Amino acid sequence: MVDFESYSRDAVHFFSLNVPPLLASAVEAQPAGFTILDLGCGDGNIIHALQHGGFLNRAGQVIGVDLSPQRIAGCLADMHFAPTERARLNLIREAVPREHIFVTGNTIVDALKSISLADGFDDDLVGRMNLSGCRLLLVTAHRRETHGQPLRSICRALRTLADTFEDVGIV
Length: 171
Known about the structure:
It is built from 8 helices and 6 strands, in the order H-H-E-H-E-H-E-H-E-H-H-E-H-E. It has helices spanning 4-10, 21-28, 45-52, 69-76, 85-93, 107-113, 124-127, 149-164, and strands spanning 35-39, 61-65, 80-82, 101-103, 135-137, 168-170. The strands form 3 sheets. A two-stranded parallel ribbon has the order 1-2.
């Protein structure tokens, strides 16, 4: 029986392409031609890490399934609007045809780059903040999917950052 809580906690290793020993052992113990079914695969980090580590050389079939609204929309979309060149390359890696991808920019980042912080802020509260010597963290959490518990988690994380790093200013 897999302990899914510790498995999820160990999943951060996939971003560095390291495969947790428990998963590596389970895959290596399979007979040649085995099938992997990755439910909730997201963007395929687990399979990518296994492939990169050479663990899938004997696999017969690898299937990734993700039924999240974002993944379904991505599969059904005729046009994909990527905010950055890196996002465009990720879409190409996911086999989205190049002619269906349009790099649009990131409206928040583009807006920030277009203003001069030397002119001050329109909002008095922000204008009174002492931001000299600070690393400024701009937080946008306005999307509907962040309402409720996700927003509370974001706020707790921001509180932790503010309490941990005295040189961080949060707007």
